[in-house]
Design goal:
By secondary structure, the chain is an alpha/beta fold. Helix content is 40%, strand content 13%. The protein is built from 12 helices and 9 strands. The longest helix is centred in the first third of the chain and has 25 residues, at 14-38.
């Protein structure tokens, strides 16, 4: 084929008229690719090895207070009042309720994480154009500084928060409450594609209940900043100009997979043994590992048609994810970038 193509190129007629422009286009593509690979690109200083310095006097495994903050936090593009957000207020009248809009979230980060050492965090947060990533980061920052309950605006409260902790557990020994979202260790690849799962086990992060300044939340903040900037470095682009991330990239950078990994790393550190999904699979009741209470799938994800999820009427069901809103973009990839 090579010799025949060379013969066509050296001759005349249709072959030469076709292959000469084609060779030129390939050469042009190579030049453009070389320019892309060699052009300088801005990297946020300190982001690759970022460590959160705000509240730096916190001890690694013991939040400063044994009391659970009586506060509920939600975030959305704009102010929102509907049956879902009202359900949290109605079932928890003694709790302070706050919904931060996108603009208020930006101000919150600038005000409460204003130390010079946290510049990589602020720059990363403000540089990304992806609303899902910003929402992930903001919930972690709120929980780290304020504590209390965070829940997405498309969740419905089913039980008062004061009833969430089982009586057999001392509230002063529980510092973080998380719930299982996906628990299908034997799922086939076909089922994975059908459900659009990235993992056969993961914790949800649409509802998280935490005391302030918890080390696991600090860890997910630090890892999220590093993950995002590593992707930007790999793509040789700034976060602001980078293409839209794929669903898998978001899940592993700041979403449930990143959150699950951070929880497992934290529990491995404080328990002195390796902790992973096998310690949290098949739960029929809450399980305390270290100071983290892991709730079974029905707690925060009832009504699912997988993972052994129970109904919303199940006594274990605490909140219901309605999936009514989404900050996921309809196009999770910038096709012009891929074509380039």
């Amino acid at each position: 084929l090579f010799h025949r193509a060379r013969a066509c190129m050296s001759g005349s007629g249709l072959g030469r008229r076709f292959l000469t422009p084609l060779a030129f286009l390939f050469a042009l593509y190579g030049v453009l690719l070389l320019i892309r690979m060699t052009k300088p690109f801005p990297i946020i200083p300190g982001a690759k090895d970022f460590t959160l310095h705000s509240f730096v006097d916190d001890t690694p495994s013991s939040p400063p207070s044994s009391l659970w903050p009586r506060s509920i936090w939600q975030t959305w593009k704009e102010d929102l009042v509907d049956e879902r957000t009202l359900s949290w207020r109605d079932l928890n009248p003694d709790y302070n309720y706050t919904l931060l809009t996108d603009d208020e979230g930006d101000d919150y980060v600038d005000i409460h994480f204003a130390r010079e050492e946290d510049t990589p965090l602020r720059d990363t947060y403000h540089s990304t154009n992806d609303p899902v990533i910003k929402a992930d980061l903001l919930r972690y920052l709120i929980l780290y500084r304020e504590g209390g309950l965070y829940s997405d605006v498309d969740t419905l409260a089913l039980r008062p928060i004061d009833t969430w902790l089982p009586p057999e557990y001392d509230p002063s020994l529980v510092n973080l409450v998380v719930g299982v979202e996906v628990d299908e260790p034997n799922a086939s690849n076909k089922e994975m594609r059908m459900w659009q799962w990235a993992s056969r086990f993961q914790l949800c992060q649409w509802t998280i209940y935490s005391k302030p300044r918890h080390a696991a939340i600090k860890l997910i903040i630090e890892q999220s900043v590093r993950n995002l900037n590593q992707i930007a470095e790999r793509e040789r682009s700034s976060l602001h100009d980078m293409r839209s991330l794929t669903r898998i990239e978001v899940l592993t950078a700041t979403g449930p997979l990143a959150f699950t990994s951070a929880i497992e790393q934290y529990l491995t550190h404080i328990t002195g043994r390796h902790v992973d999904w096998r310690d949290m699979t098949g739960l029929q009741s809450p399980k305390l590992i270290g100071d983290v209470l892991v709730m079974p799938v029905t707690a925060f994800a009832p009504g699912q048609r997988h993972s052994g999820s129970g109904l919303t009427s199940d006594p274990q069901a605490l909140s219901f994810h309605v999936f009514g809103f989404s900050k996921w973009s309809a196009k999770r990839a910038n096709w012009s970038w891929w074509i380039f």
